[in-house]
Specification:
Helix content: over 70%
Number of domains: 2
CATH superfamily of the largest domain: MetI-like
Structural class: mainly alpha
Shape: globular
């Protein structure tokens, strides 16, 4: 009996060791591109082409990449553009998707099941399949602007958000809503006073996922708002890669400045991501 317990204990220890090594390897693998960016952001062009993964030396080290990239990116304007589009689109996605998911869960009809199925099925359609028709339609109705881009983000982001909210709302006891209704609580007050406070973790989770997606998105903004004055940070960074020359030194510094805000936001909210997803997965 004692021998069996020792074997099980050794087996669990070996599993933890393997999982730890695998986690460490994957962590290093994912962090390696950021390591390359940080190092090359402090090198001149010669240093980057001479040794990409090495530390900068006295001949290649420079600090001018960051101020030059800041000026080339028109960082303040581009940052405000990215922030405005990301915040407004995310807030609207959270509001509309949570309300839609709540209605689909509480009104148990065949129509609600079909609508939820359509939302779930739409997640399987690649953006590239609707890209050209979308741009043509947007051009015809005159929404090739930041407002139109926000409207499109609402459409593309709602499907995943509704599916996640739908799973979470199933776990909220209906008795709470029934008691509030008996006390004379209307639908809007019921939703915003009872349901929304109980959805805090999943709201933060969905917000983080949408913020990271919208902030880093390049393809859709390049089709809709790729004009001076409207460009977001991902669009501006592409200017470092010209047809005949590529400024890897400025691009590295610019990319670091682009990802710092979203990394800070993610680190502040990361504890809610797993909790929100697991809470929504347990029925």
């Amino acid at each position: 009996m004692a021998g069996t317990k020792n074997v099980k204990r050794d087996s669990k220890g070996a599993q933890r060791l393997i999982m730890g090594v695998a986690g460490l390897f994957l962590g290093c693998l994912f962090l390696f591109p950021i390591y390359i960016l940080v190092l090359n952001s402090f090198k001149n062009t010669k240093g980057i082409f001479t040794d990409v993964i090495g530390f900068p030396n006295a001949a290649t080290f420079t600090l001018v990449n960051y101020p030059n990239a800041f000026e080339a990116l028109e960082y303040i304007r581009s940052f405000v553009n990215s922030l405005t589009i990301t915040v407004i689109a995310t807030v609207l996605i959270l509001l509309i998707s949570s309300m839609a998911a709540w209605v689909l869960v509480r009104y148990k009809t065949k129509t609600s099941k079909i609508i939820f199925f359509l939302f779930a099925a739409s997640m399987l359609i690649p953006f590239q399949c609707v890209m050209l028709p979308l741009v043509g339609f947007a051009s015809r109705i005159g929404i090739m602007n930041p407002q139109g881009l926000i409207f499109m983000y609402m459409g593309f982001g709602s499907s995943m958000s509704i599916v996640m909210f739908h799973s979470f709302i199933k776990n909220i006891p209906e008795e709470l809503e029934e008691a509030a209704t008996i006390d004379g609580c209307g639908s809007f007050r019921l939703f915003f006073s009872i349901v929304i406070p109980l959805m805090r973790t999943i709201l933060i989770t969905v917000a983080v996922l949408n913020v990271m997606w919208i902030w880093n998105d390049y393809l859709l903004p390049s089709l809709i708002i790729n004009k001076p004055g409207w460009q977001t940070l991902p669009l501006k960074t592409y200017l470092f890669f010209g047809q005949f020359a590529k400024r890897w030194d400025l691009a590295s510094a610019g990319l670091i400045m682009c990802i710092i805000p979203i990394i800070i936001f993610y680190l502040c909210c990361q504890k809610y991501i797993v909790k929100g997803i697991t809470d929504g997965a347990i029925k």
